[in-house]
Amino acid sequence: MSEYPVTDEDGLEPIEILTLPLDAWHREKGGRMVEFAGYYMPVQYEGIMAEHLWTRENAGLFDVSHMGQVFISSEEGITPAVEAAVEAALPIDLATLKTGAPRYSLLLDEEGGILDDLMVTRWATGFYLVVNGATKWDDIGTLRELLPDDVTLNHLDESALLALQGPKAFAALERHVEGDTPLADLKFMKGAAFKLGGVDAWISRSGYTGEDGFEIAIPGESAAHVADLLCGEPEVRPIGLGARDSLRLEAGLPLYGHDLSPETSVVDADLKFAVNKRRRSEGGFPGSDRVLKDFAEGTPRKRIGLVLEGRMAAREGAKVFNNDQEVGVVTSGGFSPSLQQPIAMAYVDAALVSEGADFVIEMRGKKLPAKVAAMPFVPHRYYR
C-alpha cells in the first residue's frame, strides 16, 4: 500500500494508492512516479521520446503488474462445464484455442458494450486471463457473476507481470531462460513455462507495442531480481507509461478507457476478429443479440486512424469535422516519435470513411487538417 496518501477531488477522504512489487526499484532507477489505475507507476525515466525510440531499436522493460491476472478452473481442471462457462462469458470459440496460445478477447455487457479487452490462454489445468488494471476489480466481479458455482476464479494477486519489448528482446531474454521449450520455438501469440534466472515464469511472445517481445508472469517477490537481470543486459532499459502509450498508438492498438468503453461496440471499434466465426452465428455470450445485429447491418460510426498536418497533436476529446459539420471525436492522439508527425485515433461517421479522406480536428481553437490513414501507423514487427 501507498506511503503517500492523497485526498479525493473534494478533499474529503484519503484515497489509498497502492504500490507494485517494483515500486522501490522504479524509484531507485529514477522513474517519475504518477498515479495510474490506482497504483503508483513510472511515467518515464529519461524521457518519453528517448524511451520510445530505444524500444523501437533495442528492447524496453515495462512493468505491467497493475494488470489483473486471473485463473479460471475447477477441482477437476478443465472440464466441459468449465469450457461452457468460459464460452458463455466471452465471444471465443475454445475449440480453436490451443494450449499455451494467448488469444485476444472481450468482456461485453448485456447490450454488447465493451467492458474490457483481455487476453485468455488455455493452460493444462485451466484458463489464464490478463485484464486491464483500471477495470480488474469490476472484471473479476462480472466474471464471478457469470461463472457457475462449480467453476472457480482465482485472482493471482501475488504475481507480477513484465513486458520485454523490442527487436532485441529475444537476444536479451534468451541468455537467462531455460525450459523444455526453446525460446526460439515461441512464435507470436505462443507461450510456455520457463525458468528465468532460476525463477518460475510463464512467458508468452506477445505485447502491446507492435514490436516483437514477450510478456513474463513471475512471483511478485522475484520481480526485482528478474528486472535487474534483464536490465543488466546492454540491449535493455526500463521504460515508462508515456512511451508505452505512444508505442501502442503508433501500432494502432486501442486502449481501454479511451478508445474502448461500454459505449463502443465490437463492430464500430473494428474488433470483429475478437468474435470467432462460430460465435458470430451461434451467439450465446453477453450482448450477442446486439453484436450479431451489428455484424449483419454495420454501425453508424467507425474507429479510424488519422495523420495530421503540422506539429500540433490532437488529444482525446477533440472534435472531428467534415465541411464544418461535427462528425466524430478523437479518442487517442499524440506526436509520433517514429514518424515525426501527429497521429490520432477517432470515431467518425462510417459513411465518410475512406483512406485519404480529409477531416478537420478542432484543438484549442485551432483547425488542424487531418487525413484518414491505415492502421497500424508503424508496421507491426511480430515474430511469426
Protein described:
With 384 residues, this protein is of the alpha+beta class. The chain contains nine helices and 22 strands. The strands form five sheets. The chain has a seven-stranded mixed beta sheet, with helices on both faces. A hairpin with a 2-residue loop joins strand 3 (32-36) and strand 4. Helix 2 crosses helix 7 (241-250). The longest helix is centred in the middle third of the chain and has 11 residues, at 136-146. It is globular, with a radius of gyration of 21 Å. The two termini are 40 Å apart. Mean pLDDT is 95; it is low at 1-9.
Strand order of the largest sheet: 12-13-14-15-11-5-16
Alpha carbon gyration radius: 21 Å
What does the largest sheet look like? 7 strands, mixed
Query: Low-confidence segments, ≥5 residues, pLDDT <50?
Result: 1-9
The shape, in one word, is globular
List the helices and strands and how they pair.
Layout: E1 6-7, E2 14-15, H1 23-28, E3 32-36, E4 39-44, H2 48-57, E5 59-63, E6 68-73, H3 80-89, E7 103-108, E8 114-122, E9 127-131, H4 136-146, E10 152-155, E11 159-165, H5 169-174, E12 177-178, E13 191-196, E14 199-204, E15 213-219, H6 223-231, E16 236-238, H7 241-250, H8 277-282, H9 288-297, E17 301-308, E18 319-322, E19 325-336, E20 341-349, E21 358-363, E22 366-373
Parallel strand pairs: 5-16
Antiparallel strand pairs: 1-2, 3-4, 5-11, 6-9, 6-10, 7-8, 8-9, 11-15, 12-13, 13-14, 14-15, 17-20, 17-22, 18-19, 18-21, 19-20, 21-22
Helix pairs in contact: 2-7
